[in-house]
Design brief:
mainly alpha; Helix Hairpins; 10 helices; 2 strands; 62% helix; 4% strand
Length: 198
């Protein structure tokens, strides 16, 4: 495992902030302390530079998490709140981490992920995030269009079933309105981005 030079400064900042810090605040404070970190990786582009800072911070946090366990402390890692707590205050083996904590830990502890991630990879990640964000924003409208608004347990299977019913009824080859057919198809595609992994 590589020695991350941010481990000591991050530990110092967290010890000085018992209520915890967000990842953004932690990055800002690190940039104030270290001009090299503030300018690290700015040449390739803003998004890639920010990804690299984020990666270095998360790598240091996950390394710290392992070191602190040996001292009976726990480190809760969440982008909105990174905080040191006593080992007893943390429920479960993950230390109060985000869902998928072990997969995230493995990702951020693998230095190859830092070096192999390109500007186009970061752009694709960001585009995927924004696509999903906008899809979530329009989910209620899409569910209403498919007649599923207000349903309690919406699964990908129930969306597919309802879509097949509607698409059969409104298909232009069966006398359906082409505009309605397109609306149903667009609603289905939007919901597929959100629910296809259910």
């Amino acid at each position: 495992m590589h020695n991350n030079p941010l481990i000591c400064p991050i530990l110092s900042l967290l010890r000085a902030s018992p209520a915890g810090l967000s990842e953004l605040e932690l990055i800002k404070r690190l940039q104030q302390r270290d001009a090299a970190f503030a300018g690290k990786g700015t040449a390739p582009g803003a998004d890639l530079a920010l990804f690299r800072k984020h990666f270095l911070v998360m790598n240091a946090l996950y390394q710290l998490q392992g070191l602190l366990r040996e001292e009976g402390l726990a480190l809760r890692i969440d982008p909105l709140l990174i905080v040191l707590v006593s080992g007893e205050e943390c429920n479960g083996p993950g230390g109060g981490e985000l869902a998928g904590g072990e997969a995230l830990r493995r990702y951020y502890l693998d230095w190859d992920n830092l070096h192999q991630t390109s500007a186009s990879d970061v752009a694709a990640l960001l585009q995927g995030f924004w696509d999903r964000y906008h899809a979530v924003d329009r989910q209620a409208e899409a569910l209403a269009l498919l007649g599923l608004a207000g349903c309690e347990a919406i699964t990908w299977a129930s969306i597919q079933r309802r879509y097949r019913q509607l698409i059969t009824r409104h298909h232009p080859d069966k006398g359906g309105e082409p505009g309605r057919f397109i609306e149903i198809r667009e609603a289905y595609e939007l919901l597929r981005r959100l629910h296809a992994r259910d």
